[in-house]
What does this fold into?
Amino acid sequence: MKPTNIRIDEVSYAYEDHHYRTPIKFGGVALDRVTIVNVHIAVRTVAGKTARGFGSMPLGNVWSFPSKTLSYQQTLDAMKGVVDQVAKITRACTDTGHPIDLTWALEHEYARAAKAVGVECKLAEPIPHLCTLVCASPFDAALHDAFGKVHGLNCYHTYGPDFMNHDVGHYLGADFKGESLDRYVSKTPKAKLPLYHLVGALDPLEEKDVTKRVNDGMPETLSEWIRADGLTHLKIKLNGDNLNWDVERVVGVERVAAETQAARGVKTWHYSLDFNEKCPHVQYLLDFLRLVKEKRPAGFERIQYIEQPTARDLKANRHNVMHEASKIRPVVIDESLLDLESILVAREMGYTGAALKACKGQSQSLLMAAAAQKYGMFLCVQDLTCVGASLIHSAGLAAHVPGVAAIESNGRQYCPTANQPWEKSHPGIMRITDGTMATETLTGVGLSATPDCW
It folds into this structure.
């Protein structure tokens, strides 16, 4: 037992609610609000040192618990029920270890508790495991934050053999035997990362698309956003069930972007495409790419990668292989990424990339980053409209994992008020001016996410 190991002394959590300045459309649902859960955990080392950690995450119920039968409030209430159970299980934990060990030991209890919550709430469908990961992620983040703070170190200095009790093989199997996690994680953050700005399905591209201006002093059209934030990376939300609309949406984005970038003297920019799993089959994606290439060859060349085009349940959709599509552009798993098995299945099906998300937990994200690097996969870090501490957490993940191409962040677009308490300590993360996120400030103790007001 290492003297650096910790045990949990106290656990508490609270919610905060925010309304979006403009709606964001996901999977056919227009969202205008978010509930965030903030977690505090007190820990004690074997040697007796104490510290408090902080973790935060939006409860993205529409993303992690999509349902055609349950209402927004029902899925949100179910997630709150899971959060309550995760807090009780975490509070009752008497184990000592590294944060990854503690979360590794508890995650099966979290899953069982989520199943029980679904039964107790008499839900018409079970709570997905992805949803449970989101509920548990701020508790995991608080553990990592506390571990760094109790040792006076940034978290990314605590993933080597001096602090870890096991090699990566303990968690991921024989392929990783004898390997230390810090082999796959950088202690020093990248100074800057390209930022992917979201072009939502409801977002106006130009003035004629604006039905009613918000008039809050922030950009409202795509061209205004590009000029204001110096954008060079655009993530385009697509429907996946309307081929003509999807093609024309990319054509429209490319036209507006090309005009705006030409006026700025910018010649290089990129797109990522997100179908929110709505493509009925891979042929839809192949037809889409062919048509985009025919209509806007330059726009086609700017496509950097494609997110999870078809259903997230890979085992139930083994026929939807991505081998042909991945020859054209990297195709990454996002919603499907739950564990090592999902990466292995995805690779068999032709997926060539993985999207890491802080909302699935720091522990899981680091282990999946190791697996993706081991297997030579394209890497990116995606968003859950993360704001405040959760955005700092997400940015830290992107800045410390080698090979991450860019970071998505749309909280500043839809919920900027939740970022305001953090602008003083991390101005280059909360406000974008040159198309990049400045991540050189992510060197503080823990996860570098201590509110300015503390």
